[in-house]
Design goal:
heterodimer; A: Butyryl-Coa Dehydrogenase, subunit A, domain 1; Butyryl-CoA Dehydrogenase, subunit A, domain 2; 3 domains; 4-stranded mixed beta sheet; 4-stranded antiparallel beta sheet; 8 strands; B: alpha+beta; Butyryl-CoA Dehydrogenase, subunit A, domain 3; 9 strands
């Protein structure tokens, strides 16, 4: 695929969509976060506003409340939002795709429209204290009874669970089968008896992450998504959407910071040490690479290529860009480090998580080695 | 070109590379050079970029340069087919006689204000060289004797300081930008091809080579080395292809900025990818007979060709308008 010419330009309908969206944004000013308003509450207000304009779930079929367009249309909207410093699109794409691919028609009709509208907030119960990179090693167990399960275990890193009503939960349903065939997926309402949510404070001071304790929680059979044992496949689909670094509007956010660094370099020309000037130049190159790479992926998808393990390459490139950029930005704006630290310092702290969330950089390298390079397994 | 035609042309370059790519430094001899160059002439690609509008887009030319870089080739596809004809095309001098290549400074940079201190770069099969000064004046210079090059497959000829200089024309300012962007993209694309191919060869070697009773590609330390090299090659590929597309579709200022970014990425990342590949090959890659140093030489010298990282990064740090 990469040895034939590609069209790196936007197709006409994407361009039209971007213009429509800009016109809508001009009439709907970005909401301001009120003092003391928790981030997820603010984001939910934003989610509903976007939904009212038809800008959520562009790639979800219309009968489930979406617009029936493609992932590329969704990317264009993320990109536009990043470019005007708006909060990103609601992070529901990966959950929606899990339901679309594995849910029953009844479940899709029941959950998707409310999810897209922001009427129901979801979180993701995958990782556990003992199952991080080795997700398949999870020990939360759902014991089967006639028409329901009893779930017992503990989940970790369930972002914003304290503000969520539903959780996409993975649990083991078979103690004897191999790990990848014994995991099932459930929709768990978080107000069920036996569920305890405890927020964790992150390094940047936010309480995004949560722990979830499940003590003999009853889950109905009808709340299982897909057949027993398909949980692993569902998780892999979900994670590959979540990992899709190029779909998240991050790039335009980096672009704004890169431009800020360049303006500073221009103003301070001559007085900025050469080394620092080169580091800013390096960030410009990283950013240009990421823009080009995202456009190449878009062009490849338009040419009919299906997304696969190369999303691990994308994630490593995004991580490189983000971590080097925020590190350089602190060097250029040292005042951000004084006192309690400025907003940029908070973003810098969060950039350190880029090589961990959505699969660590080491896991991405394993995926590239095995699934792209087809290198042999040990032994 | 329509897609089928491009595939045909690409496969011509591919089969040239298979038949005439050298596999060891000792194969680089005058007789093999002549035979390979004759094979390139026989492909009839000389007019790809000579007519206006050109038969091949910049992206197609970049893809051919990439293909040419995948094997160590002595042929001057870059100098005599892709680069010098583009200059003549931009000048509207498409009936100019002979087979020129391009002239660069001895440090392999774009020439300065005067056509002085030059070499004829990528001169296999060439009978003259075209020099573009910083002001955009294009002149033709005669070729001197063969000059040594650390890139063993690349032919370079001296240009005598007393050589007659024949002015061919002058590039309009926008065409001067286009020329620089195009030249950067073409040489960068060849380096991307070289690094990509060498990493693929290292991956194959990691599958085959056994130590401790198992293939070394099963060791995570080796896997991660190759995974990182793969990411670097992908980054180089994306940014270079995009820069080539910009030449076909964007204003020259934007195309030049994209080409500079591509060269900066490739200067460091293609080289790092080659280092990783050599590390996987281990001791065998340190020998004269092995192909590794031919790639290393091309990519290392390539990192200084036209623009170095030290030239590019401080310039890219400042927005175009204030430069």
């Amino acid at each position: 695929m990469t040895d034939a010419p590609l069209d790196f330009g936007d197709p006409a309908d994407l361009d039209r969509l971007r213009r429509e969206f800009r016109a809508w944004l001009a009439e709907h000013p970005l909401p301001e976060r009120q003092s003391g308003e928790p981030v997820p509450v603010f984001l939910r207000r934003w989610h509903r506003l976007l939904h009212s304009g038809g800008w959520v779930g562009l790639d979800v079929p219309e009968r489930y409340g979406g617009r029936g367009l493609t992932a590329l249309h969704q990317v264009a909207i993320s990109d536009e939002l990043g470019a005007c410093r708006a909060p990103g699109v609601p992070r529901i794409g990966y959950l929606a795709h899990a339901l679309l691919e594995f849910g029953s028609e009844e479940q899709r009709l029941k959950f998707l429209p409310r999810m897209l509208a922001g009427d129901e907030v979801w979180c993701q119960g995958f990782s556990e204290p003992g199952a991080g990179s080795d997700l398949a090693g999870m020990s939360t167990f759902a014991e089967r009874h006639d028409d329901h399960y009893t779930v017992r275990g503990q989940k970790l890193w369930t972002s914003y669970a304290q503000y969520s009503g539903l959780c996409l939960l993975l649990a083991r349903t078979d103690r004897s089968a191999p790990a990848h065939k014994s995991i099932s997926a459930f929709v768990l309402p978080l107000d069920r008896p036996g569920v305890t949510v405890r927020p964790l404070r992150a390094a940047n001071g936010d309480d995004e992450f949560c722990e979830l304790f499940l003590d003999d929680v009853r889950v109905e059979e009808s709340e299982r998504i897909g057949a027993e044992g398909v949980g692993w496949a569902l998780a892999m689909t979900t994670v590959s959407y979540e990992r899709n670094a190029l779909d998240t509007g991050h790039i335009s956010k980096y672009g704004l910071l890169v431009e800020r660094l360049r303006r500073h370099a221009a103003e301070r020309q001559g007085s900025l040490p050469d080394g620092l000037l080169s580091r800013i130049g390096r960030c410009v190159v990283d950013y240009e690479v990421l823009v080009a790479h995202a456009r190449r992926r878009t062009a490849e998808r338009l040419a009919g290529q299906v997304a696969g393990p190369e999303s691990s390459v994308d994630k490593l490139l995004m991580t490189r860009t983000e971590q080097r950029l925020y590190d350089t930005a602190l060097e250029v704006f040292p005042a951000e480090l004084s006192g309690q630290g400025g907003a940029l310092f908070g973003d810098y702290l969060y950039s350190r998580a880029a090589s961990v969330y959505g699969g660590t950089s080491q896991i991405q390298r394993n995926i590239i080695a095995k699934r792209i390079l087809h290198l042999p397994s040990n032994g | 070109m329509d897609p089928e035609e491009f595939v045909l042309v690409r496969d011509m370059v591919r089969s040239l590379a298979t038949r005439h790519g050298v596999t060891s430094a000792d194969e680089v001899k005058p007789s093999t050079r002549t035979a390979a160059q004759q094979a390139l002439d026989d492909t009839g690609l000389a007019d790809l970029r000579r007519t206006s509008p050109p038969a091949a887009t910049a992206q197609e030319c970049a893809l051919l340069a990439e293909e040419h870089g995948r094997r160590p080739l002595t042929t001057s596809l870059l100098g005599t087919v892709l680069l010098a004809p583009e200059l003549l095309r931009l000048l509207g001098a498409d009936t100019s006689p002979g087979t020129p290549t391009i002239a660069l400074t001895r440090e392999l940079r774009f020439p300065g204000r005067a056509p002085a201190d030059l070499v004829a770069w990528d001169s296999e099969g060439a009978d003259s060289a075209l020099c573009v000064t910083a002001e955009g004046t294009v002149s033709r210079v005669e070729l001197g004797p063969a000059a040594p090059s650390t890139d063993l497959v690349r032919a370079v000829r001296a240009v005598q300081s007393d050589t007659p200089v024949e002015v061919v024309g002058r590039l309009a300012p926008a065409d001067q930008l286009r020329w620089q962007a195009y030249a950067l993209v073409v040489v960068t694309a060849e380096l991307v091809g070289a690094a990509g191919s060498f990493v693929e060869q290292a991956v194959q070697y990691a599958r085959d080579r056994r130590q401790y009773g198992q293939s070394i590609g099963s060791f995570q330390a080796v896997q991660h080395l190759l995974a990182d090299a793969t990411v670097l090659v992908e980054a180089c590929t994306s940014v270079t292809r995009y820069a080539a597309w910009c030449l076909d579709n964007e204003p020259p200022e934007r195309a030049l900025a994209a080409a500079r970014a591509a060269k900066a990425e490739v200067n460091s990342s293609a080289l790092e990818a080659v280092y990783a590949g050599m590390q996987v090959f281990g001791g065998i890659a340190q020998t004269w007979e092995h192909i590794a140093h031919l790639y290393l030489r091309k990519v290392r010298l390539g990192a200084t060709l036209l623009a170095t990282t030290a030239d590019l990064l401080p310039a890219l740090a400042v927005p175009e308008v204030t430069r």
